[in-house]
Amino acid sequence: MIFEKLKQDNAEEYINYLKIAMSEEPDNMVAEKVDEIGIKSRISDPFYNRTISILAKENGIVVGRIEYHFYGCVQDGHKMAYVDWVYVLKAYRHKGIAQLLFKEFERECIQNDIDQYYLIRATNEEANRFYGNFDGAQLSETPLLRKDIKI
């Protein structure tokens, strides 16, 4: 298993992974289709430079990823990370890949002096079992406000 950050030179491999994920579990995806041109454009767009994806590759094929970004609170100096997305293809689940992705991500957090990270997690039985095994983590049922600006 190797890990790479998403860049222009591995965009096609990432897009192939997304196509498989979309075909296998369309209801678990946040998009309705794979926007190849948009993805390639966003990889080099300065707005998205702070969004990082670590790709898990096995035999040259992307089988999973974790996407996140860092930010901070000016008032107290707290440095945080938000995990936007973590997903492993169905055929590669239960092999420790998601755990390894989180370890790679946590290494990045340590290197960047991040105090804490969080994510909005799925609450199905499999997700609860997965996240319930994190050392030093707390699961909560936090109320969430989400408002679309563009409709």
What does this structure look like?
The structure is a single chain. The protein is α+β, with helices and mostly antiparallel strands. It has a 5-stranded mixed sheet with strand order 1-2-3-4-5, sandwiched between helices. The protein is globular, with a radius of gyration of 16 Å. The relative contact order is 0.14. It has helices spanning 11-24, 36-43, 97-111, 125-132; strands spanning 2-5, 51-58, 61-72, 79-88, 116-119.
SSE order and pairing:
Blueprint: E1 2-5, H1 11-24, H2 36-43, E2 51-58, E3 61-72, E4 79-88, H3 97-111, E5 116-119, H4 125-132
Parallel strand pairs: 4-5
Antiparallel strand pairs: 1-2, 2-3, 3-4
Order of helices and strands: EHHEEEHEH
First-residue to last-residue Cα separation: 40 Å
Any idea what the shape is? globular
Low-confidence stretches: none
Biggest sheet descriptor:
5 strands, mixed
Mean pLDDT: 91
Q: Total helix count? A: 4
Question: Which structural class do the helices and strands define?
Answer: alpha+beta
Share of β-strand residues: 25-35%
Give me the Rg, rounded. Answer: 16 Å
Order of strands across the main sheet: 1-2-3-4-5
Give the total of beta strands: 5
Q: How would you sum up this structure in a few lines?
A:
This protein is of the alpha+beta class.
Name its key features:
single chain; 151 residues; alpha+beta; 4 helices; 5 strands; 30% helix
